[in-house]
Write a structure and sequence with these properties.
Length: 68
């Protein structure tokens, strides 16, 4: 079984995806090797500041999406 790494949502950056169904957020890693690091990730579903996400890995970071 894969353990998740808890991360807290600290900022909601923007909506992403073809229909705006995903959110780009900044999260603070709460445990593991990258504890305290702030990374950008894409999240699908309802999300708000203070929510805890369980990420399978914290090395990969979402790229900033360009505007049209």
């Amino acid at each position: 079984m894969i353990e998740g790494i808890p991360c807290e949502v600290v900022e909601i950056i923007e909506r992403t995806g073809m229909a705006g169904e995903a959110m780009q957020v900044k999260v603070r890693v709460l445990d593991g090797n990258d504890k305290g690091k702030i990374i950008t990730r894409n999240v699908i579903g309802p999300i708000q500041i203070g929510d805890i996400l369980m990420l399978s890995e914290t090395q990969r970071e979402a790229k900033r999406l360009g505007r049209r």
